Amino acid sequence: MDAHVAEWKYEEVKEIADLLTNNKIIGIIEIGGIPAPQMQQMRKNLHGIASIRSAKNNLIFKSLDEAEKQVKGISDLKEIVTGQTAIIATDMNPFKLFAQIKAARTMAPAKGGETATYDIEVKAGDTPFKPGPIVGELQKAGIPAAIQEGKVIIKTDKVIVPQGEKIPRDVAQMLTRLEIFPVEIGMTLHAVFEEGNIFKPDVLDINIDEFLGKMRQASNNAFNLAVETGWVTNLTIKSLLMKAHYNAYVLALEQGIINKETIKHLISKAHANMLALKNKTT
């Protein structure tokens, strides 16, 4: 029996190590607390883009050590492996991968016992409930409910579970009935390994559209500066030649230099001056 288990573990370590060495981007993701249906949907959404492989942490450690023989530095990911961990392997840009995983997170009802990741607040206003025992149940859960004009209302905005505190079971039930879903579920990308470097969320969590916009603006500013200073490159040469041609044309007009490009404008200018002079003499 022991030999069978050892063989099974060996094969799993080999499969995970192959995954680690055959992909450009390797991520460590937290998958704890994700219900099976949502996890299945997340895998489906990433199908063809990334591979997800979950395993016990000790097997992931062994796989990272094995992969280190071919990919230097990848075993440093062991420091990131905590909780219920999985490997995500892909060729996708790490920033796009982080953004896609973050965008896939959804809000779910609380069951009670979860830690609030932000202040959970109920807003003043109408509720869908008819007058009855529900008012007392809401009040018992700390929600300032009352009956007004035949409706059950929440009188004022109130934070009923501060950030960092546990969500009581009775509060969780009332939040669900109010269609307030305070629990965020989904994969959390803790780190990405790419070409010997490890990137964590403090680096990966950027607004890609805003970042690209800044890059485009920086590129435009650099190009304009290069043209203004006459810096000749493959990118600026066309604009510099056009600028030089225009400046030469304007100078030729100002100095009355006759050539095939200026002659038409100079004749028009002379004609306009002649008419102006005629009008003054008549």
Walk me through what this model shows.
This protein is an alpha+beta fold. It has 3 domains: about 1-105 and about 185-205, Ribosomal protein L10, N-terminal RNA-binding domain (Alpha-Beta Plaits), CATH 3.30.70; about 120-185, Ribosomal protein L10, N-terminal fragment, domain II (Molybdopterin biosynthesis moea protein, domain 2); about 210-280, no CATH class. The chain contains 10 helices and 12 strands. The strands form 4 sheets. The protein has a 5-stranded antiparallel β-sheet with strand order 2-3-1-11-12, with helices on both faces. It has a 3-stranded antiparallel β-sheet with strand order 6-8-7, with helices on one face. Strands 4-10 form a two-stranded antiparallel sheet. A hairpin with a 2-residue loop joins strand 7 and strand 8. The longest helix has 21 residues, at about 210-230. It is flat and about 100 Å long. The termini are far apart.
Q: What integer value in Å does the Rg equal?
A: 34 Å
Number of strands: 12
**What structural class do you assign from the helix and strand content?**
alpha+beta
Which fold does the CATH topology of the largest domain refer to? Alpha-Beta Plaits
- The strand order across the widest sheet is 2-3-1-11-12
